[in-house]
Amino acid sequence: MRAEDPGADAPFVFRDGCIGVTVDVRAYRLSAVQKTAYRLAAKCTAIIGEVREHSLVVTLTFSPTTGEREALETARLFFQELLDQELREKVGEQTASLRALILAHAFSRTSLPPRG
Fold it and tell me: So where are the chain's domains?
């Protein structure tokens, strides 16, 4: 993660009601970015750009009443939530076969009505 402006001293720069961040798609899946954007929708609008090489630019856009401090905190929370969502994706992927087995076992013990 890095601020969109590479010359910035701070990790995030709040300019014109927006903060641009770059996500490395080798570390985070697009689905995790989308879920993170959804989770923070009450605080900002995340405009997800296209993937170029290994980078995804996300612009966090805030309402005119949002101050710089609140916007910067939301940008920090974006990456905190992004890590959480990526880990959820990873755990879901790693446990998919086990969950399918448990579900199959559970349904094998029920008498479902025939379809048709």
Answer: 14-108
Domain 14-108 listed as CATH 3.30.70.60? yes
pLDDT of the residue at 112: 64
Distance CA 35, CA 28 (A): 11
Give the tokens for residue 18. Answer: 């927006």
- State the chain's mean pLDDT as an integer: 89
With a cut of 70, say whether residue 29 has pLDDT above it. yes
Q: Which two tokens stand for residue 12?
A: 């995030």
Residue 98 token pair? 């086990």
What is the secondary structure of 6-66 as a DSSP string? TT-SSS---BTTEEEEEEETTTS-HHHHHHHHHHTTTT-EEEEEEEETTEEEEEEE--TT-
